[in-house]
PH domain-containing protein (Polypedilum vanderplanki), 199 residues
Amino acid sequence: MDNLNKVLNTTRPVVSGLLHKYTNVVKGFQLRYCKVDAENGLLSYYLCENPDEIQNSVPRGTIPLIGALVNPSDEDSRTFTINSSKGDVIKLKANDAKSRQEWVDGLRAVVENLSSQSRSTKEHLATYDCFIASRKQLQETETCNSNLAKSIESCETPISHIDQDLLMLKALSAATTSTLSQAFVCLQRYHESTRNEMY
């Protein structure tokens, strides 16, 4: 097996090696070449046993790792299962207990990494929705401020010193709307800068 624990380093997108895969009651476990694509979240297995042969061959099957459960089996020290979030289950057997542990730890690391990416994407989409809703609310506030200013300016009776409250309301509304607009721009810039630091 190709040093599977390297999958813990997320910069390594593919891990591969030989495992025995349970096919059916009659045939039992059959040797398969397994390849984990951590970037796309897939484990593919091939009928061939030589990694050079998989270049031009189609996988015998694949199982998605996003949201999957990887569990060591109680039946022996070499077997483990992968339960996909779609309900598919495959049973695999490593050469020994140490190899099984490397596969289990490595696959769990891939699943966790994919889960973190998924959460990050959902959080980004939620934040984006909040910004859209906030921008819409701000536009409505700007429209209300503009309508208020026009209403005050178009009063039929001239504004005198008695109407200072109306002038104060107009100035306060304009200042508040401007402050909200500037705060929104600052918040957007801060969000973009923190996202750039993350990626």
